[in-house]
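Researcher: Let's try something more involved. This one mixes different molecule types, so please make sure each is placed in the same coordinate frame as the others.
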Amino acid sequence: MIFESHAHYDDEAFDEDRESLLEQIGRSGISHVINVGASIQTTERSIALAERYPFVYAAAGVHPDETRELNEEKLRWLRQQCGREKVVAVGEIGLDYYWDATPRDVQKKWFWAQLEMAAETGLPVIIHSREAAQDTLDMMRKFAQLHEARGVIHCFSYSKEIAQEYVRMGYLIGVGGVVTFKNGRKLKETVEAVPLESILLETDCPYLAPVPYRGKRNCSLYLPYVAEEIARIKGCTPQEVEEATWRNAVRLFFERRG
Ligand code: NI
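Model: All components are placed in one shared frame. Result:
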């Protein structure tokens, strides 16, 4: 069984066959899919998918690129969504200095507000961080000092040393298709350096399809290729990887605090 911890089936890349693909996924070895919001609109769509498909769950949150759209009223709306039964995380939230689509102080303000919202509502967080290693680490460290560190650094792209620091604080590391890439050496080193108990499987589909589908549209059905590569690095079986990451995800997303 596989737990898909990060997908975007609301994306237009799935407009033509969303229904048949999700039905196929529901019949496959994928037990859970978390469809992750990245804006107010995609959070709404994620919740709609979660309400339609029993194995789909939603994360509610606004991606750093989109934080310019946020205000107190929209934050209140997001907080209300966190109380829904099928909303199991706040995300994806974080910092993105690669696109720099929104001023950095605005990104930081709403990143912190959404972290606080997660703590208040008892949900774990799904973190997006690109070219913003130090600022993200600083904020996640501060958060871990104030609250229980429950979350995943999704599509982890930094050094193994940074990964180990997140793991020490109690966060998990999201690993997807990049680990199968020839130029994915940094992520392979991270997988080698952190325990299997700290890894989640994810696609970030429609993006980042693993080899042999690299460059094509990604979907949860390709996760066995990711599990296989992690198993090769760890010297265990793909089944052990699937089981361990499944348990990690269930622990993170379904064990509510207090
Ligand atoms: Ni994503």
